[in-house]
Amino acid sequence: MAVLLQRWAVDLVTHAVLGAAIGEWMLGKRLGNRALAWGALLAMLPDADLLLTPFMNTAAALWWHRGPSHSLLAAGLASWALAPWLAKLWKKEKVSRMTAGWLVCAAWCSHLLIDCFTMYGTAVLWPFSGKPVGFNFLFIIDIVFTLPLLVTVVWMAFLRTKKQAPKRRRLNAWGLGIAAAYALLAVGMKFVASAGFDADLARRHVTYLRRMEAPTPLNILLWRSVVDKGDAFWVGYRTVFEWHSTPVRWTVYPKGSSSLIPVENMREVKTLLNFTDGWWIARPHALGVWVGDMRFCETRSWGNKKNAVDSHLAFAWDILPAAKGDHLRQVAHPQGNAGQTLKRLAMRIIGKRETWEANPRLAGVTGSLPEFLNIEE
After folding, report:
1. Which of 218, 205, 254, 214 has the alpha carbon at shortest distance from 238?
2. Which candidate, 79, 7, 24, 3, places its Cα nearest to that of 46?
């Protein structure tokens, strides 16, 4: 839970600074620093759904977070409800209801857009569809995207005079421009990485049901692919600098679908499977079933066993049919050595594969020792 809160806090900063930049762009001339503050606040409002999750069970919280409050319908309703009040608040500045409504809509939708760029996704089409929309262009937290906006927003906050207004506009344009350029670059990098995975799978004559790619933490240079082979998932990594002829080292994760047969009719299980969109593996244990989400980059640790790397899935749950109260509980996983992971990540990006790869083991499964996994090279 502490790790998730830390990620959410950093994610919230991204939404806040992007909303502040939009507030400055739309109403900076009239409201000054108030435009920054209101833009930031409005862009953070969709995540107010987290205030209710402590009062929900695990399954309900999975459905609720990035659900209704992150939909286009919610953005429209918020614009309609807040516009009259904001127009009245800014009457002296001659801000119309329409302008106020567009500010709410733009700031709210900026939140949805950034969430859609990540692998977590968001239910923008609720209530017509509860399936999250996620394009997997950016990691959930990407400092390179956030930092230019943060610097320019803080800088603008100190430029308060009318004479400094042109400089504020230029700074805002730079911040938004750099962030937008980076997001577009991420789109391009995904296509480059996907082409490399395509070439490797075609060379192996591999057939599969579906596939997804997403960036590894804090960068858009090293990408992770998950291939659904029906009875197993193949997970591989490649950088955008590698030739298409460079083979991908695939780790094979058996799905273990039969493990869910005894609990498949439980409401919590149906919610969990819908949340993971079918990208799950399962393992039985004495009290129920462990389920892990394969979409998110695993936490890696080295040194627990010679020549082995242990992978803990970032999101995993225990299904406990006999438990009192909540039958679905999220499994905490170790953070690992962040410094070592970042160092090995950087070395992998520049092509030193041996620093990242080793004999893979699936760790963190409730009641089980690490499970050795097969590889395809």
Report:
1. 214
2. 79
What mean pLDDT value characterizes the chain?
A: 93
* Both tokens assigned to 285: 């244990």
How confident is the model at residue 9, as a pLDDT?
55
Closest among 283, 281, 287, 280 to 259, alpha carbons compared: 283
CB-hemisphere CA count at 13 Å for 310? 18
> What pLDDT is recorded for position 247?
95
Q: Helices H, strands E: what count in the chain?
A: 9, 13
Distance separating the N- and C-terminal Cα atoms of the chain: 36
Q: Report how far residue 373's alpha carbon sits from residue 279's, in angstroms, rounded to the nearest whole number.
A: 18
CA distance 95 to 11: 30
SS3 318: strand
pLDDT at 10: 63
Tokens 């242990």 found at: 310
Question: What does the domain layout of the chain look like in residue ranges?
Answer: 2-186, 206-376
Continuous segment of H or E residues that includes residue 44: helix 33-44
